[in-house]
Write a structure and sequence with these properties.
about 475 residues; alpha+beta; six-stranded mixed β-sheet; 9 helices; about 25% helix
Length: about 475
């Protein structure tokens, strides 16, 4: 994620419907079936995610009415039990009302409880290793999250449509989900809107069908995707679908309302070309691109004002009209496709592995395109009175995952590492790390160990100073 303007912080109340959990039947209790955990174990967000199963695929179908802002939706979740399950949870936030819920095609009991828990009790226990499907029909007006520290996320109505930007916990505002970084899945989307609107999502388009006054768009995302990186954008977009120099499909969209009138005529083509140019440079620096397409969406969205690295198709949201995103900002968000999207932090405290790498990508971009060198960026940030030296980069705290500490000091750490191990080893590292961890999960400790194995160096002092120690390191 990169910040363009500060996030608006007007508080939106999120209420959960409390309910009594259904007790285990005697048969389930005697046969060793137990409930899945109501959280995934992340200390920053204990309510996020769930245990007892592995979500493998989400099929999301919804109709959106931009007049009422309501959705009429159906989610099918394919999963595999990782224990003998008597019941399990999904994350589901806000006022959306469920009209039907089945497990394996059979009606299941459910309750809404706690901050975001949808507790589901299937007709009979699910054995470890068993694959199963959950079907949930629901409707209503999604209510986004406006967190004091982390800002606006979730399903956000725009002037002519909607956009979903869900980091860190907004996906549960518009579909039931195992909302944790450590349970990636594939997705498909079937989205129906008034026929004057267009729809973009993760992955690639799989056809459209116009029927009466509406059009249905299908998208398929075949690579594993963390829930916080799922996106949908609905609006009157100028869409460009081209190929980069290496043949990678490049689908970009521009909301004319997000662009100054003088630039609107060329904005769609310029944004598409800039995206293509940046990704071709990054393929040379970071190695094999981890997904089957690339792109981006520039959209006017109230109270957002930030860019987000949603998988394959970053969203550049702004609260007022401007120019197309800069090449540096595009480099940041597309750098995340390797660092954060393909290689995803196992817990949120490791987010510097996303943001430090992406910020350093900006420094590398200017260095290799006639601008300031990475060393000049380092010197400026190191000497700046605005740089945040409080806290620990490798464990910033729940309310500080988007602080300058994570972004700038994370990038400073990358440059300090580059100086320590030399350019040859450093540029080998930033290709080898995302390739070795492709579509996986990582921690700071794993990155340190990987770097030491690759370089045959003991780097404990460097990493201790830059990642684990509060205060300004000496250089």
């Amino acid at each position: 994620m990169a910040r363009i303007t500060p996030r608006a912080l007007s508080i939106t109340a999120i209420t959960a419907v409390a309910g009594l959990l259904i007790p285990l039947s005697a048969a389930q209790a005697q046969s060793g079936f137990t409930p899945g955990a109501p959280g995934a174990g992340d200390p920053y967000f204990p309510d996020m995610g769930n245990g007892g199963y592995d979500a493998q695929h989400y099929s999301l179908s919804l109709t959106y009415d931009p007049g009422t802002k309501a959705i009429d939706a159906h989610a099918t979740i394919r999963a595999r039990a990782t224990q003998n399950l008597s019941r399990f949870n999904l994350d589901f936030l806000g006022p959306l009302k469920i009209s039907a819920l089945t497990v394996g095609g059979r009606k299941a009991s459910y309750q809404r409880t706690g901050a975001q828990e949808l507790v589901i009790t299937p007709p009979k226990g699910l054995r470890r290793g068993q694959s199963f499907t959950v079907d949930v029909a629901y409707s209503g007006v999604p209510q986004n999250i406006d967190d004091d520290a982390l800002g606006v996320s979730g399903w956000i109505a725009t002037h002519d449509g909607a956009v979903a930007v869900s980091q860190p916990f907004g996906s549960a505002t518009w579909f039931p989900v195992n909302d944790t970084t450590s349970d990636k899945a594939t997705y498909d989307f079937t989205i129906t809107v008034p026929k004057d609107l267009k729809v973009l999502a993760n992955g690639e388009p799989a056809g459209t069908r116009t029927h009466g006054s509406a059009t249905t768009f299908r998208w398929v995302d075949r690579q594993p995707t963390a829930s916080e990186l799922v996106m949908v954008a609905i609006g009157k977009f100028d869409v460009k679908d081209t190929r980069t120099a290496s043949g990678l499909r490049n689908i970009t969209a521009v909301d004319p309302a997000a662009i100054l009138p003088a630039n609107q005529a060329t904005a769609g083509a310029d944004f598409n070309k800039s995206t293509a140019d940046v990704i071709e440079w990054q393929r040379k620096v970071f190695g094999r691109y981890p997904f089957s397409s690339v792109g981006g969406v520039t959209v006017l969205a109230p109270n957002v004002g930030y860019a987000l690295e949603t998988q394959t198709r970053p969203v550049y949201a702004r609260s007022r009209a401007g120019a197309i995103p800069s090449a540096g900002l595009i480099a940041h968000e597309l750098g995340h496709q390797w660092f954060g999207n393909s290689v995803t932090p196992a817990q949120w405290k490791h987010i510097w592995l996303n943001e430090g790498f992406a910020t350093y990508t900006e420094w590398l971009y200017t260095e290799q395109h006639g601008g300031d060198t990475a060393q000049q960026h380092f010197d400026e940030a190191y000497d700046s009175a605005d740089t945040d030296w409080s806290g620990k980069v490798a464990d910033p705290g729940r309310d500080h995952i988007y602080d300058d500490l994570v972004y700038t000091r994370g990038a400073l750490t990358m440059h300090a590492l580059r100086k320590e191990i030399g350019d040859k080893a450093f540029f080998e590292l930033i290709k080898a790390w995302p390739e070795a961890q492709r579509h996986g999960y990582s921690t700071t400790e794993e990155f340190v160990q990987f770097t030491e194995r690759l370089t045959h160096k003991n780097l404990d002092t460097l990493f201790q100073k830059w990642l684990y120690t509060d205060g300004k390191p000496s250089v």
